[in-house]
Design goal:
Elements lengths: L7 E5 L6 H11 L3 E3 L3 E2 L14 E2 L2 H9 L3 E7 L2 E6 H9 L3 E5 L2 H10 L4 E6 L3 H11 L4 H15 L7 E4 L3 H14 L11 H7 L8
Parallel strand pairs: 1-7, 1-8, 2-7, 3-4, 8-9
Antiparallel strand pairs: 3-6, 5-6
Length: 211
Amino acid sequence: MVDSSPKLLILSSPSGGGKTSLARALSTSMENVSVSISHTTRPQRAGEQDGEDYFFVGEEKFKEMIDSNKFLEHARVFEHLYGTARLPVQSRLNDGQSVILDIDWQGARQIRNAIRDTLSVFVLPPSLEDLERRLLTRERESRDIIDERMRGAISEISHYVEFDYVIINEDFSDALSELRDLLQFGREPRSAENIKRLSFLKRQKTVKLKD
């Protein structure tokens, strides 16, 4: 049975895990589903559009918004601030739209503590080797930054146990289908049934996240 009630869907993953691509694909493949555009203090990259990819603001402006309670959540990630503005999200939900929040685990924790009725999903890569390969393929960052992101991935992934659901993004189409079924029909994702958190954290790059 189709569930048409508006939902607040939280998507988190380590950098390169695919949450942004999945969020955009989900919003374009379903009616009345949109992605919240975050504010950030990080520099604008080539090809990015202000107001489409992010709202790019200075740190002083960002802190003014914090002081004015304009954010539903905000966090510092890799030396830059990111936040979700409160009013646009509330307005879309009130208009009957489901809203996707493409945020890290810190922001997800804030949202879950503040709003009871949410769906939270952590997107995992099939392995850390695969995650590193994706970061290298993007050709957006230096080797030093990629190494920093890989070190941070271990810590980020440890927080997936806080989320309602976990999806392994091994095949993009399958991961998107699982997200769509969850949002539309309430079907629980099956791709991450066999993950083993402790073995993953101990063995790091040598472990597959699913058998």
